[in-house]
Amino acid sequence: MHLAFLRDYHEALVIALARTRPTIERGTVAEITSLTPQAVSKVLTRLLDDGVIATAGVRRAALGKPAAVYRLVPESRWAIGAHVTRRALRLVLTDLAGTVHASATTALPADFTPDDLLGRLDSGVTAMIREHRLDDDGPRPLIGVGIGMVGPLDQATGTVRDAHRLRHWHDIPLAELAGQRLGRPVLVDKDVTAAVTAEAWRRDAGFRDAALIMVESGVGAGLWLNGAAHRGTHTNAGEFGHTVIQLDGPACACGRRGCLEAVHDRAADPAAAAAILGVGVVNLLQTLDLGHIVLAGADLLRHGEIYRQVVEDAVRTQVPRADWLTAEVTLTGLGTDVIAAGAAIQVLNLRYGLPDPVGLRLP
Ligand SMILES: [Zn+2]
């Protein structure tokens, strides 16, 4: 058991390097990971056999023997991710590198039921499998299906507790129901946590403490702390929109007053809304000392550059000692696919990523 874990861990280390660099070779992998060259050779051989990496020629050095060069084979593994909003179901197909190859969006009826969603999920996933000739054990293996869902939800059991403003979603075991319907394991997580995982999968190890701020029918934050998704005690971390920023502020859907989301949604224009979001982001930086803020969500991306500039200004002018406590503010590179892509990448991450100390689990 211990040895099996160790082998997978070494494979995950090598895959993580191959994912974020054009090519890898034995010597540099050994140097970066502190594995012995012999251990690296074994891992490379196994990954070659599994088709996860391929040879990409040799590098001739001025001194010593030529070194074999390898690259990741992104098309060797596939995953499907679903993004459930209050209005629509978006499905994407990603490869092992996290690149989106296909997407499809289906409208959901107003105040949809679990059955409404499961029917559309089933037909959408089935169509994607057929169209892209995915299989379980053949040349184009589908590793699994992930769902990014509005919360609050319990990731560990895949149970949606009370999706905000969806009446029929009270204590619904979505992972179990979807797994039965699709006949394969399904991973469910909060939309924001899926999204921040997508960002992290595509960045290098420098992306260690970060938040993905989502504005899309609500405000939330996916947290990436110490190099892993942070879910919290009840796996419901990220209700950033329901932190109070104005004690006598407007009533919020959650029952409190003056939540960031309620104040933000009532702003006069995108710049004013972005300034309110900026206050929240500075609060988050003061609490967590993050290095990266990624802005995402369909509502935010409609005015993406305004939000990016205003939030960056807030970070530069409102964080005390901002000259030292710097944080990079960017827009997501995955656009409106980020949640669905993240849900797919979480499935790949569970199988091929580094072990997650928070313990992402298939129910
Ligand atoms: Zn609230």
Can you lay out the helices and strands and say which pair or pack?
Elements: H1 2-20, E1 24-25, H2 26-33, H3 37-49, E2 53-59, E3 67-72, E4 78-84, E5 88-95, E6 100-107, H4 114-131, E7 142-149, E8 153-154, E9 159-162, E10 170-172, H5 174-182, E11 186-190, H6 191-201, E12 210-215, E13 219-225, E14 228-230, H7 260-265, H8 270-288, E15 292-296, H9 298-301, H10 304-318, E16 328-331, H11 338-352
The structure holds zinc ion.
Characterization of this structure:
With 363 residues, this protein is an alpha/beta fold. The chain folds into three domains: 2-72, Arc Repressor Mutant, subunit A, CATH 1.10.10.10; 76-195 and 338-352, ATPase, nucleotide binding domain (Nucleotidyltransferase, domain 5, 2-Layer Sandwich), CATH 3.30.420; 203-333, Nucleotidyltransferase, domain 5. 38% of the residues lie in helices and 23% in strands. It has eleven helices and 16 strands. Strands 6-5-4-7-11 form a five-stranded mixed β-sheet. Strands 14-13-12-15-16 form a five-stranded mixed β-sheet, with helices on both faces. The chain has a three-stranded antiparallel β-sheet with strand order 1-3-2. A hairpin with a 7-residue loop joins strand 9 (159-162) and strand 10 (170-172). It is globular, with a radius of gyration of 21 Å. 41% of the residues are buried. It binds zinc ion. Zinc ion binds at residues 242, 252, 254, 256, 259, 261-262.
Strand order of the biggest β-sheet: 6-5-4-7-11
User: What is the quaternary state of this protein?
Assistant: single chain
- CATH secondary-structure class of the largest domain: Alpha Beta
SSE run: HEHHEEEEEHEEEEHEHEEEHHEHHEH
CATH-derived topology of the largest domain? Nucleotidyltransferase, domain 5
Shape: globular
* Number of distinct helices: 11
Biggest sheet features? 5 strands, mixed
* CATH superfamily annotation of the largest domain: ATPase, nucleotide binding domain
Query: If you compute it from the alpha carbons, what radius of gyration comes out, rounded to the nearest whole angstrom?
Result: 21 Å
The total domain count is 3
Task: Write the CATH architecture name of the largest domain.
Answer: 2-Layer Sandwich
Uncertain segments of ≥5 residues (pLDDT<50)? none
Q: Whole-Å distance between the termini?
A: 21 Å
